[in-house]
TrEMBL record:
<comment type="similarity">
    <text>Belongs to the PRAME family. LRRC14 subfamily.</text>
</comment>
<protein>
    <recommendedName>
        <fullName>Leucine-rich repeat-containing protein 14B</fullName>
    </recommendedName>
</protein>
<keyword id="KW-0433">Leucine-rich repeat</keyword>
<dbReference type="GO" id="GO:0005737">
    <property type="term" value="C:cytoplasm"/>
</dbReference>
<dbReference type="InterPro" id="IPR050694">
    <property type="entry name" value="LRRC14/PRAME"/>
</dbReference>
<dbReference type="InterPro" id="IPR032675">
    <property type="entry name" value="LRR_dom_sf"/>
</dbReference>
<keyword id="KW-0677">Repeat</keyword>
Length: 519
């Protein structure tokens, strides 16, 4: 659906569409038109014009999220367009803002905010080439170092060294870009462009390097910390992290799989868990917590009860929660504030149906996203599920992949889902009757794609027809077999794959060595 454009925006598009003319004329353009021209240039992917607009930016701040978001002249939000041409032009324009202005004393820019850029699966830009979070981290670090080299080699106006621009960014660091980012952070005090990390994602990184770079990024500014795949952080390391570094503004924390494993707990470990809970309790801004694939049986209360601020997002998927854990969640003060909840990998209908019902009833007034993948929800449980979801009138996303539901049960469920007014996204499982008889759940990766695709397409068509007949074309229904899209994983999957192959090879070598010793 086309978004209406004002005459001002149409005029701006016409102006920037001739890049050569626009660039020559910028010096005579009124300053208050720069934001309008920037959005028009971004829409038309006019990289050279974007570069020159940023290079001559007349304001104190440059906020990508606000500039590309909904505006009076053009309501479409462009902040999800991570167009490589546009973003590279922005960043090189920023470098040249420092270097190429006639007088440093007329420069007003103090803050550049790049955190409003959203990485999504489907890109609408013409070039179809994206610049993800990892690549943005890489390019900004590279430009900061190039800028320093340039300033060292040439006799620049001394006023340039008076320029100080905070560049707010969500950093994404892996083994491959670690050295470059570390160098940029170490030399931050000398560079006119100051990298200010607001969110930090670490993936495929040795623990020692993770600890070192975490201290460099200035944890006092950090609002979001994601420690994900191939960072071998266990509970004792987490305690060390919290004991040595303070995160006063941290709002969101994601921990890697197997951070906790209560099955091998000693008395010392119990004390360590208590200590971690107390440390998290001092993070007064913390409202989002993800601890998937840890074993936390019977310890949820110990970990979450010290928190002073209610959680808005909780991911405890595949954490082997028991009835006591679920009872604590249902009765805790967090329940009334949960906007996003992931309980995947728990046998909800058999283990704690009434407690789950209670938890959803408490969070129903605010719950926006619910994920119940691989929860053994069967046809006989659909009415119970509908009853549980009925009060959740603000639900926008519902994911329930990997549950053994028949085509008939899915149709029944979809008829109900049409009644949830805010619903926008549904991820549903391949119907059980599309798989060969005797399939066991959870379905392993080897069997995941071995279903009757023709029958599935027919059922999916019927489910979409149910939505269509209820005038719910606004709801997107899909079956992403290997889980929801993750922009960060997608961007670095080659590095991740290489790491996994290397790990597998090392394991095989150790195994072979052990066999040789035995023989």
């Amino acid at each position: 659906r086309a978004t209406m454009k004002s005459l001002r925006f149409i005029s701006a598009e016409a102006f920037v569409s001739n890049a050569e003319f626009a660039r020559k004329s910028l010096s005579s353009v009124a300053h208050n038109l720069f934001p309008l021209l920037f959005k028009a240039s971004y829409l038309l992917e006019q990289g050279e014009v974007i570069h020159d607009l940023v290079e001559n930016w007349p304001f104190v701040d440059f906020n990508m999220g606000k500039l590309l978001g909904t505006t009076v002249d053009y309501q479409e939000d462009l902040s999800h367009r991570t167009c490589s041409v546009c973003l590279e032009s922005c960043l090189t324009g920023l470098r040249d803002y420092v270097l190429n202005h006639p007088s440093p004393y007329v420069k007003r820019l103090k803050v550049v905010d790049l955190t409003g850029i959203k990485d999504v699966e489907v890109q609408f830009c013409e070039c179809k080439k994206t610049m993800g979070r990892w690549a943005r981290t890489q390019l900004l670090s590279k430009l900061c170092l190039e800028l320093l080299v340039y300033l060292e080699q040439r006799r620049c106006n001394p006023g340039i060294f008076e320029i100080s621009i905070d560049v707010l960014i969500d950093l994404f660091v892996t083994e491959r870009n670690y050295e470059l980012v570390v160098q940029a952070l170490l030399k931050k005090c000398y560079c006119p462009l100051k990298i200010c990390c607001v969110a930090f994602r670490s993936d495929n990184l040795a623990l020692q390097k993770f600890f070192y770079i975490t201290k460099l990024i200035d944890p006092s500014l950090l609002r979001k910390l994601e420690i994900v795949h191939n960072v071998r952080l266990e509970m004792e390391h987490l305690q060390m992290l919290f004991n040595s570094i303070h995160f006063p503004l941290l709002m969101s924390l994601t921990l890697p799989a197997r951070t906790f494993n209560v099955r091998r707990f000693t008395a010392t470990d119990e004390q360590m868990l208590t200590n971690i809970g107390e440390k998290m309790g001092k993070m007064t801004q913390l409202t989002e917590l993800s601890m998937s694939f840890s074993i936390l049986t019977g310890r949820i209360q110990k970990l979450l009860s010290p928190l002073k601020t209610p959680l808005k997002m909780l991911d405890v998927s595949n954490c082997s929660l028991n009835h006591a854990d679920m009872a604590y969640l249902a009765n805790s003060f967090h329940a009334n504030h949960l906007e996003a909840l992931d309980l995947s990998g728990h046998n909800i209908p058999d283990l704690y149906p009434s407690t789950f019902f209670k938890l959803l009833s408490h969070s129903s007034s605010v719950l926006r996203s619910l994920t119940l993948e691989d929860c053994n929800i069967q046809d006989t449980h659909v009415n119970m599920l509908i009853l549980s979801l009925s009060p959740c009138q603000k639900l926008q996303e519902f994911r329930f992949l990997g549950n053994p539901l028949s085509s008939q049960a899915l149709k029944h469920l979809f008829t109900f889902l049409c009644e949830l007014p805010m619903l926008k996204n549904v991820e549903f499982p391949v119907p059980r009757d599309c798989y060969p008889t005797g399939i066991t759940y959870p379905v392993d990766d080897a069997c995941l794609c071995r279903f009757d695709h023709q029958k599935y397409d027919s059922v999916a068509e019927e489910l979409n027809l149910i939505l269509l007949q209820a005038n719910r074309e606004d709801v997107k229904a899909s079956t992403p077999l290997f889980g929801s899209y993750d922009a960060a994983v997608q961007e670095t999957n080659n590095e991740l794959g290489a790491y996994l192959i290397k790990s597998f090879k090392e394991t095989l070598e150790k195994f072979t060595t052990s066999l040789n010793k035995m023989s």
